Structures are given as structure tokens and as C-alpha cells.
Amino acid sequence: MRTENVEAKRELVLTETIGRNGNRFGDEEERLVLEVLRSGNLNKNCGTKVKEFEKQFAEYLGVKHAVMSTSGTAAIHIALGALNLDPGSEIITSPITDMGSIMPILLSLCVPVFADLDENTWEIDPDDVERKITPRTKAILAIHLIGNACSMDKLRKIANKHKIHLIEDCAQAFETTYNDTLVGKFGLLGCFSFNQCKHITCGDGGITVTDDDMLAERARLFSDKAWPREKGRTSLFVAPNYRVTELQAAVAIAQLKKVQDICEKRNRLGKMLSDGIKRLSGIKIQEAYPNSKHTYWFYAFRVNAKIRDEFVKTLAGEGVPCTGGYIPRPVYEYEVFHNGKMFGNSNFPYGHEPYRPFPEPISYDRGICPFAECLLDEMIRIPFNEFWTEDDIQKTIEAIKKVHQGVISGKR
Ligand SMILES: *Cc1c(COP(=O)(O)O)cnc(C)c1O
């Protein structure tokens, strides 16, 4: 009788809110953090854990070098610092992303140029990238949004053809593959984030990877005030301090062991959800390229913008945690691009000779990436995670079908 009640109550809770959360940290994290504390040293230059993690991450991905830092933002800044681009260089990237992709471009005194997204994959559209190349373009920063791969073959071709660098932002894309190869290995440099909301985490942290020895050397210097420690006390160029502590690396070592299982599960559950709803008229899923693997940093689909908010409200009423959109607007509409005060009262590097002899000003106005703007108005996001069960996904599919019936089909 008692167990029956408990079961009944559990059912009730589940229908109130589908899905679940769990503690992402276990015995291994605890053991390694304690080991660091007991060693009496938390600093990476005197310790072993950061070095160990960098080695493990490079091996895991299959690259020669990895430089750990304090955040994904720092990892991208380090990649750009390694490339040492001239101020005013243009970097083409996606308009839907975390500002952690964009701030390093501005901090490098470079200029972000936004290309629109592909309507099926929601990833950067290579044709629009090519249209936006100017003589000032020096790099493409490909962002694998939500754990789905960009069209790396085409981006690489464009980069080679125009002799510009290709960099990857893999902050949302652990275990994501393209042509059966892990993302992060296609670009000259790849960057990952370990902040609390990413597939694996150490609270905050990041890593920059490359196969290039010279870039790796410069990346390492850029993360540590350009101080070549083996050569003595000097600084070789302008660079911040992005050193992480041994504590973060200890947690990251334990987390890396779980990354394949976590992403395998997210891939399976995400695909299951897509298969369950992709045939419903008026619902569009985020598609992956053939031979690529989507690891669903979150789950999202889109419906007509006119009914989106009603759909979200009704779906939430069915117990599915969900919200409309992701970021509120494409990042080019953010205030930082529109107040004319990039550094102090100056708008450097915009419009500054000789870096930008302005044939025409760069536009950050609404309308420059029409599909990205539309996507944010149409997107419905379900923040699922690896603790969800197939049963949770099945219930979510049923709820979406029910809401679809009422909100979309009922409207005809
Ligand atoms: C999270 C994220 C970043 C920044 O990572 P932080 O560790 O938060 O600095 C950069 N790019 C993308 C696409 C992200 O999702």
C-alpha cells in the first residue's frame, strides 16, 4: 500500500514536470580535489594536474597541443592572441552565440562580421561567409551551435581559397563529429569551455587546441602574460593572465572520463525526440549533416513565430520544461555594438585609419542575418540533460503531439 502511494506520487510529480537533474560530480572529482589540496599547492606552474589534463585532452581529441585556461572566452582570446592579427582585421562568425565568442574578437581589436545561418542545420552558412569576405578578412570563427557541427568541408575550402584562418568554437560541441571526425580538429585552432552549463565542467575553464607547434607556443605564452618562464623574467608581447588552478584541472580530469557517456546519451535522447516529432506539420527540427553527430547541448525545434509563445505556454502546462528562443536577439543587436564607445569614448577599431579605410561602414542593423533573426523568434528550447530517461523523452513527445494537435492542427 505504502509503496503504491509512493509510486502514484512519483507519477504525479513526473506529469507535473517531465525530466530530472542529478549531481554531475562523484567520487573521482572528490578524490582528485582532495589530492590537490593535500599537496599544498594550487598553482599550475608548480603542480601537475593542469599539465596532466592538457596532455589527456590533447590525446582524447587527437591533437598535438592543448592549453588550458580560465574560460571558454579566454580559450578563444588565446587562439586569437596566438594568431596575432593586426587591429581592424575582420573575423566572420555566427550571430547566434554566447558573447564569449565575440568579446575575444573585440578585445583583440578586431571586427566581428556576421554571416547568416543555414535553415536546416542552424549553423553558419558557408555561402554567406564567402559573400562577406573582404580584403580585411583574416579568419572565420565557426561556432558549432547547440552541439551540431558546421559544414566544415565547405568552410575549410573557403578558408584555403581566400588564405584566411579557420578557428572553431566548440564550447557547445563536446563529442560532436563532422565526417565522423571530432570537431575541434578541423580548424587551425579549436576552443572548448568547461563552464557550469557545458557538457562537462570544472565550474569555469577552457582549453585551446592546435596541431601547430609555433601557435601552441604562442598560445601558452598568451595565457601567462607572455612570460617565457624557462628564459627568465621578461614579457614578449601584450598578453593577459588566464592561468587556471590545479583544483579546476582536478575536476576536469574526472569529468573528461565521463564525456563520451554523457554525449552518447544526449545524442541518443535528442535523436529519439527528433524522430518523435519531425513528421508533425509545422514543426521543424535542427538537422545534422550526414556522417555528423549532434550532441544536443540543449534540445530545440521551431514553429511559426506567431504561435510560438502560445505553444511554449501550453507545452509548459503539460509539464515539459521549455522556453521560447535562446538568446533574446542576434548578438549584433546588443548595446555594445550600438553605443559608439568600444574603448573609452572612442569606437576603436571601427572607422580608424589605417585599419579600416571604410569603403562602407560595417552594419550591425536588424536585417543583416534574416534567418538568424527568424530562428530566435521561432525556436522552442527544452533544457534536457543526460539524467533524463527514455521515458521522459517519450512523455515529452506525447506532450508535444498533444499541444501540436491543439495549437497548430486545431487552427486550420
Ligand atoms: C559558453 C560559450 C562560450 C564562452 O565560454 P565561457 O566559459 O562561459 O567563457 C563561448 N562560445 C560559446 C558558443 C559558448 O556556448
- Overall residue-averaged pLDDT value: 93
Neighbour order of strands in the largest sheet: 1-9-8-5-4-2-3
Total count of strands? 13
Instruction: Note the total helix count.
Output: 13
Description of the molecule:
By secondary structure, the chain is an alpha/beta fold. Helix 2 runs antiparallel to helix 9 (246-256) and helix 11 crosses helix 13. The strands form 3 sheets. The chain has a 7-stranded mixed sheet, with helices on both faces. Strands 10-11-13-12 form a 4-stranded antiparallel sheet. Strands 6-7 form a two-stranded antiparallel sheet. The relative contact order is 0.16. Helix content is 38%, strand content 12%. A hairpin with a 2-residue loop joins strand 6 and strand 7 (181-182). The structure holds pyridoxal-5'-phosphate.
